[in-house]
């Protein structure tokens, strides 16, 4: 039986909810900014999301394409990463409207918030901020390393006869590694190993074997690595490696366990540094990746050493992917700040954008391990978002090309997307996009995601620009 205190709490909740609804409705009604400000000052909660759609005030401002109001709400404490009932953030809505100004405000708020959370987290017991935006607390094989390592993996073929490695999560199977990733791995190995002296002396470290795609590519180099260390913890993957003769390959050393168990061990450090370091793990979050970044000065061997990682950070959500790609760049640059004598390499993230990161030589206290370390190069290569068709997509990029993805299910934007404004004029966009859509609509492909195949109208267009 409820008492007076319960009635008071319910009345307070209702009052707060009414204020939240009033704020959202006022934004949708396009009330002036000063009116919105007064509603907030009277206590309207910026965190409130309605039941019908899961819409927050920030979602509403994004729908109105009101960058001034988006900025105000962010400054007042709006939750940048709240998702509605369709799992869309306000940033996703801004992106769908081609509202680059509002999107950038929301994205930058996310970067600031996540960097602050990272700084506040102690290294002794880091509570990864990525779990706050990429997923809820997840004790399944998809989000828990312990659960993943105790799960049974299934090695099979997909509908396109590509190798897949699957793990069951709940009632469905998801991909641990998929055959369509080969194109990304080929580009990664090319960037890590081409156009460099001393190729015949390469020492390679790979974290996470999976299907062995990238390790197979390393072994297929014109001159095999003189040392090839693979760290892999999952017993099913280790058995798969034994079944395929990896334990007998010359120059290959397999360390059975998590990378955290070996990264500072004599088995790794005694090698004296690696020419190539690559990591692609499963069920780890950004906190783990950030920790791995901090070990790079001890892992990379010298002036031509290169590092790459499979950038799948929030890859099924454009906003989260963008935020964490920027955070990774900042953290890597922070590590690079310990170095001198800059040297840059420009790289392409498939489905994303060109990036360049710089490395300098390690500080004096680390030179005892790597006496030849100088201008260390770093490259990173991104993953393809699951909204595109991995079964048919092969990453490629020329300096005169821009890749555009459209769908017949949604009208193409009438204005030039913000990402392309430096490449073409509004007149050119208006003239060419109808012809592109008409032509490309004949070549729609089915979508193949991890453990799932379904019809899709997604269209891939490769359009050249002068």
Automatic annotation (TrEMBL):
Which positions fall inside the RMT2 domain?
A: 139-378
Does Calcium show up as a keyword for this record? no
According to the record, the segments passing through the membrane are: none
Q: Which UniProt keywords apply?
A: ANK repeat, Methyltransferase, S-adenosyl-L-methionine, Transferase
First and last residues of every ANK repeat: 53-85
Q: Which InterPro entries match?
A: Ankyrin_rpt, Ankyrin_rpt-contain_sf, RMT2/GAMT_Mtase, RMT2_dom, SAM-dependent_MTases_sf
Q: Name one Pfam family in it.
A: Ank_4
One biological process term from GO is: methylation
Molecular function in Gene Ontology: protein arginine N5-methyltransferase activity
Q: Which domain of life is it from?
A: Eukaryota
Q: Which Gene3D superfamilies match?
A: Ankyrin repeat-containing domain (1.25.40.20), Vaccinia Virus protein VP39 (3.40.50.150)
Q: Would you tell me the Gene Ontology cellular component terms? A: cytoplasm; nucleus
Q: What is this protein called?
A: Protein arginine N-methyltransferase 2
Lineage, top ranks: Eukaryota, Fungi, Dikarya, Basidiomycota, Agaricomycotina
């Amino acid at each position: 039986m409820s008492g007076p205190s319960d009635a008071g709490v319910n009345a307070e909740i209702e009052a707060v909810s009414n204020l939240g609804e009033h704020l959202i409705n006022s934004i949708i009604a396009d009330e002036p900014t000063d009116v919105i400000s007064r509603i907030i000052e009277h206590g309207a909660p910026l965190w409130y999301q309605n039941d019908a759609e899961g819409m927050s005030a920030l979602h509403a401002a994004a729908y109105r394409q009101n960058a001034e109001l988006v900025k105000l709400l962010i400054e007042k404490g709006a939750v940048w990463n709240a998702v509605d009932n369709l799992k869309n953030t306000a940033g996703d809505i801004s992106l769908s409207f081609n509202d680059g100004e509002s999107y950038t405000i929301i994205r930058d708020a996310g970067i600031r918030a996540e960097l602050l959370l990272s700084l506040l987290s102690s290294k002794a017991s880091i509570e990864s901020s990525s779990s706050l935006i990429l997923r809820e607390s997840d004790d399944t094989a998809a989000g828990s390393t312990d659960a993943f390592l105790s799960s049974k993996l299934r090695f099979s073929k997909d509908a396109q006869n590509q190798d897949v490695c699957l793990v069951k999560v709940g009632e469905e199977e998801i991909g641990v590694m998929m055959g369509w990733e080969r194109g990304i791995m080929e580009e990664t190995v090319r960037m890590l190993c081409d156009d460099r002296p001393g190729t015949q002396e390469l020492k390679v470290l790979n974290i996470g074997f999976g299907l062995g795609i990238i390790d197979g590519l390393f072994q297929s180099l014109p001159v095999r690595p003189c040392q090839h260390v693979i760290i892999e913890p999952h017993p099913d993957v280790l058995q798969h490696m034994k079944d395929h003769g990896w334990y007998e390959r010359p120059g290959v050393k397999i360390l059975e366990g998590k990378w955290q168990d070996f990264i500072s061990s004599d088995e790794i450090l005694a090698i004296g540094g690696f020419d190539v370091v690559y990591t692609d793990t499963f069920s780890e979050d950004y906190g783990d990746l950030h920790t791995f970044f901090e070990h790079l000065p001890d892992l990379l061997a010298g002036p031509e050493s290169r590092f790459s990682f499979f950038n799948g950070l929030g890859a099924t959500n454009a906003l989260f992917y963008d935020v964490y790609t920027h955070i990774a760049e900042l953290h890597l640059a922070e590590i690079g700040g310990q170095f001198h004598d800059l040297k840059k390499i420009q790289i392409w993230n498939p489905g994303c954008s060109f990036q360049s990161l710089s490395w300098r030589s390690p500080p004096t206290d680390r030179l005892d391990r790597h006496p030849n370390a100088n201008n260390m190069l770093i490259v990173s290569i991104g993953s393809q978002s699951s909204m595109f068709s991995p079964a048919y997509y092969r990453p490629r990029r020329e300096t005169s090309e821009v890749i555009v993805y459209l769908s017949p299910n949604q009208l193409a934007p009438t204005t030039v997307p913000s990402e392309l404004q430096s490449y073409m004029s509004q007149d050119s966009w208006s003239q060419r996009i109808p012809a592109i859509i008409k032509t490309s609509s004949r070549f729609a492909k089915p979508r193949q995601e991890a453990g799932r195949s379904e019809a899709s109208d997604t269209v891939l267009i490769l359009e050249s620009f002068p």
